[in-house]
Amino acid sequence: MNIKSYKGNYHVHFTDCFLSSLKSEAKTGDIFLIDENVLQLYRKQFSYFEKSNTIICLPSGEKTKSFDAARKLILDLMELGFKRNHKLIAVGGGIVQDAVAFVASILFRGVEWIFVPTTLLAQGDSCIGSKTSVNFDNYKNLLGGFYPPSNIYIDAAFLDTLSDDEIRSGLGEMLHFFMIGGRSDFKNFRDTFHHCCEDKNAIKKLTERSLEIKKEMIERDEFDEGPRKVFNYGHTFGHALEGITNYQIPHGIAVSYGMDMANKVSVYLGLLEENIAMESRELLSQVWRNTVFPKIDTKEYLNLLSKDKKNVGSKLNLILTSGWGEMFMKEVIPDEGFTEIVNEILNFYYSNNN
Ligand SMILES: NC(=O)c1ccc[n+]([C@@H]2O[C@H](COP(=O)([O-])OP(=O)(O)OC[C@H]3O[C@@H](n4cnc5c(N)ncnc54)[C@H](O)[C@@H]3O)[C@@H](O)[C@H]2O)c1
Ligand SMILES: [Zn+2]
After folding, report:
1. Which of 32, 60, 248, 280 could form a disulfide with 55 if both were Cys (CB 3.0 to 4.6 A apart)?
2. pLDDT for 238-256, tens place per residue?
3. Is the pTM of this model over 0.85?
4. Which residue range is the domain that position 324 belongs to?
5. Are the C-beta atoms of residues 88 and 111 closer than 8 Å to each other?
């Protein structure tokens, strides 16, 4: 898959052997940056590069994608003699991706980087789209830009060592593209989803289609200035859930709840037929199944929702829907009726999971 970008085309390769892809990619002076859990699990495979290349182990967790960690990483790279003609080879999930992409974009005014995504979320979503970000103090994703890798190598073998939660989080994130893709994409996801546990090809198919839907949009709006904003579907409600639960709910699962909330609010505002919201909920609830949904204070939740950066004044700018493939931004006044419907939905999740 080739993706058009302001930086020229970049490429997604689906491979059954990441090691042989990396063997042809890694040159003298290139430096590997690998997530600590991935390095531990796949140490044997990566030991091949220990003689020829330096491997930096990045701690798992958000602290790795912070401004302070980026500063330290740049100092380490300088000490190791990294030059502008060398490449950074990132191996890990969205955290390693964001951190390495950020550093690659500013070091020597930009150096080449390669990405091997190892989580389903990174394979089926974040690996394309060019976004880079690091957290600054308590502000998540405050600093960043657009800086794609030149090559992405996707190997589904990495999924074997992911937890069930991480797999469902990746599926939830991918599902939001299928909902935006339209009715037939939604049905395709539903039919394929049931085979995901026993058949790796099913997950591969979903990953490829997810990236195809995303590719079409990011090529039209790489810098997120217009149509790409519909990808925030499920995210405004989802981010507020992540925030209020202190990130206890994994991102893609929070997005699944978020899509359901966007659907139910759309029904409440007369934009969406109830039966479409219920048909969607049937699938979404399979993604979030087993999640222990905590008791959430609706006022506190609405307060977080009002802090979303898309909002203007006291009105909320939400991505709502009138059906699969029909998402749009709508200004909503958070009045009594809105508060009541949000309260009802949050209570529904709580009572169904406990
Ligand atoms: N740049 C973008 O476009 C974009 C898009 C979506 C999300 N993100 C960012 O991505 C981050 C989340 O990424 P993520 O969900 O991939 O999480 P992650 O990178 O934190 O990885 C999740 C966990 O899985 C472990 N792990 C990774 N690969 C593994 C494997 N193959 N086997 C076993 N364990 C493995 C990691 O060590 C970590 O503990 C967030 O910071 C989010 O803001 C960025
Ligand atoms: Zn997301």
Report:
1. 32
2. 999 998 998 889 999 999 9
3. yes
4. 166-353
5. yes
Atom from ligand 1 closest to the CA of residue 62: 41
Find out whether 1 and 15 touch, Cβ atoms under 8 Å: no
Looking at the structure, do residues 171 and 261 belong to the same domain, yes or no?
yes
Nearest Cα residue to 62 out of 140, 169, 128: 140
299 C-alpha to ligand 2 centroid (Å)? 24
* Residue 125, domain CATH: 3.40.50.1970
Ligand nearest to the CA of 252: 2
The response to whether residue 162 sits with its C-beta less than 6 Å from ligand 1 reads: yes
pLDDT 10s digits, 80-132: 999 999 999 999 999 999 999 999 999 999 999 999 999 999 999 999 999 99
Is 177 in the same domain as 131? Answer: no
How far is Cα 111 from Cα 305, in angstroms, rounded to an integer? 37
User: How many angstroms separate the Cα of 271 from the Cα of each of 82, 263, 321?
Assistant: 55, 9, 7
